Amino acid sequence: MVRAILEGRKTMTRRVGADVVVVNGQVWKPARVDYAGYVDCPYGQPGDRLWVRETFCPIYPQDPHYNGGRPIEYDYAATYQHGYRLGDLIGEKKKWKPSIHMPRIASRILLEITAVRVERLHDITEADAQAEGVERVVVGSGWRRYCDPDSEEVGVPPCGDARRSFRSLWKYINGAESWNANPWVWVVEFKRVQP
Question: Given a cut of 90, is residue 96 above it in pLDDT?
Fold first, then answer.
């Protein structure tokens, strides 16, 4: 979904909320039988800024003393084009690092939360499904079917609308049982800002 953010297609995300109850538009989390407390979204509030971590590869200078031995730049798996670096041409393997190990300085994407709300997963609208970053198919019309990685192949029908595409993406990531449970989710809207 990093590519969707970079392309401006993704401006919203949904995250499952644990033990959340909505009463009169207020989000509550039971703490004890006789008490319930107001819950802030654990993913942030409007105005908060989030930096995005992604799979990356630090590029170090040839001279180990240059720049204090720190990387001089970074490549990112989501947008890397093979052949861009000399090492690609001579057969060197890139040493990609998982997103969980990305330091803040290597992040190229900064998001600002613009809105937060809670709703049932199945309540997603067509516009919201598009804001989740689902892709249109390249050939023909329709939306990508994520449950089938070969959905671009001839003979595999695309989804008829963005909501169905999002449903297939949710099932692909979280499992069919997660979609069928129709959990309460945090809906976090954001915009990309300059770091």
Answer: yes
